């Protein structure tokens, strides 16, 4: 039961009575509409939420109402096809969401050991579409970092897995836990950067398999166990690409998926579609979440976008647009989030800072088999 009409009704009530500004969380909450109570109960059941006491329940209900109202505003303001609404993070404040699921704020200057590739224009024709998910056994299954702030390690592991499969045509799943336990510059579940993960792989001369050294979601109290297990994949180096999106697309289509670090602010309420952010709604300089870039394409935009949970009865229909170019990104919050664990960002305006740190492992593994092309 979606309670669409009821949810629209209570959002209208909240908007009229409170203005739904960012400061309302500090106000006396008072009684809430019954429709909101019902929707929140369904949320608790769906995501297995319980709270310690009535005061905490009331606080989370207040945050939930605020987040749904914020999602409605984003839906009306977004210039792409994105839909925003209820997600597994709807009972968290923006600060809690960042602390639990992001990484450290990326530094203004990257370390000297990060090599930069040439920034010249891509010399080969760039295909109109590319989706590495369509190639057999190239992209591994969606991982779930849970409350461990290890997106940096997962993105690097996903990158190495994909490149290893493209180069060797051998399926591997590498150990994220080894990156957490054995890193020298990152902080395990307290955050890090993708270059910390690559330096760990180089220092350890490779990575063990996920099967041998499984993910726990917290650093091993016994420390690094890398020497106990056989290495199943390794890299020669890593490099950062230029910030030109055409260069990134060309490299992606030719060589394979790469890691990027973005501002994750809009992902808290994201359900599906293409996010076309502005610098105001998603600051491209404040990147705090690493993911794997797996493809790009174009899609037609709907005349009016409707969400199953936050329909607005008063919203004016949007004018139809011809097409929306987008990036396809693999996240690390489980397959039930977003578009089966993936999301899409508008391609062409540095949405959410996607061009700030495009980094990939360098894998030189001679094989006699022909290279795998990126499926359209």
TrEMBL record:
InterPro entries: Papain-like_cys_pep_sf, Pept_asp_AS, Pept_his_AS, Peptidase_C1A, Peptidase_C1A_C, Peptidase_C1A_papain-like, Prot_inhib_I29. It holds the Pfam family Inhibitor_I29. May have a specific function in the mechanism or regulation of T-cell cytolytic activity. One of its GO terms (cellular component) is endoplasmic reticulum. Keywords: Disulfide bond, Endoplasmic reticulum, Glycoprotein, Hydrolase, Protease, Signal, Thiol protease, Zymogen. Residues 1-19 form the signal peptide. Residues 126-362 form the Peptidase C1A papain C-terminal domain. GO terms for biological process: immune system process; proteolysis. This is Cathepsin W. PANTHER family: CYSTEINE PROTEASE FAMILY C1-RELATED. One of its GO terms (molecular function) is cysteine-type peptidase activity. It is found in: Endoplasmic reticulum. PROSITE patterns: THIOL_PROTEASE_ASN, THIOL_PROTEASE_HIS. Its main location: endoplasmic reticulum. It comes from Cricetulus griseus. Belongs to the peptidase C1 family.
């Amino acid at each position: 039961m979606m309670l669409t009409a009821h949810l629209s009704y209570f959002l209208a009530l909240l908007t009229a009575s409170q203005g739904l500004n960012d400061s309302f969380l500090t106000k006396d909450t008072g009684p809430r509409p019954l429709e909101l109570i019902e929707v929140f109960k369904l949320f608790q059941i769906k995501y297995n939420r319980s709270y310690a006491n009535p005061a905490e329940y009331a606080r989370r209900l207040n945050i939930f109402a605020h987040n749904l109202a914020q999602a409605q505003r984003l839906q009306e303001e977004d210039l792409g096809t994105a839909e925003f609404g209820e997600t597994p993070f709807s009972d968290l404040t923006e600060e809690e969401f960042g602390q639990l699921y992001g990484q450290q704020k990326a530094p203004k200057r990257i370390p000297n050991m990060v090599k930069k590739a040439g920034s010249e224009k891509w010399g080969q024709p760039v295909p109109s579409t590319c989706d590495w998910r369509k190639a057999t056994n190239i992209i591994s299954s969606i991982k779930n970092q849970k409350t461990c702030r290890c997106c940096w390690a997962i993105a690097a592991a996903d990158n190495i897995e994909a490149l290893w499969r493209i180069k060797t045509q051998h399926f591997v799943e590498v150990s994220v836990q080894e990156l957490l336990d054995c890193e020298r510059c990152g902080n395990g579940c307290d955050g890090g950067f993708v270059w910390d993960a690559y330096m760990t792989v180089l220092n350890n001369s490779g990575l063990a398999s996920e099967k041998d050294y499984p993910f726990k979601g917290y650093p091993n109290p016994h420390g690094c166990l890398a020497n106990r297990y056989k290495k199943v994949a390794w890299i020669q180096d890593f490099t950062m690409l230029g910030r030109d999106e055409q260069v990134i697309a060309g490299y992606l289509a030719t060589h394979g998926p790469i890691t990027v670090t973005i501002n994750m602010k809009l992902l808290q309420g994201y359900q599906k579609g293409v996010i076309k952010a502005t610098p105001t709604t998603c600051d491209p300089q404040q990147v705090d979440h690493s993911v794997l870039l797996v493809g790009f394409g174009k899609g037609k935009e709907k005349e009016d976008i409707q969400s199953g949970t936050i329909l607005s009865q008063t919203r004016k229909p949007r004018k139809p647009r011809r097409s929306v170019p987008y990036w396809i990104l693999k996240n690390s919050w489980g397959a039930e989030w977003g578009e089966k664990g993936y999301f899409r960002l508008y391609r062409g305006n540095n949405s959410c800072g996607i061009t700030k740190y495009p980094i990939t492992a360098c894998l030189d593994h001679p094989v006699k088999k022909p290279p795998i092309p990126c499926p359209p």
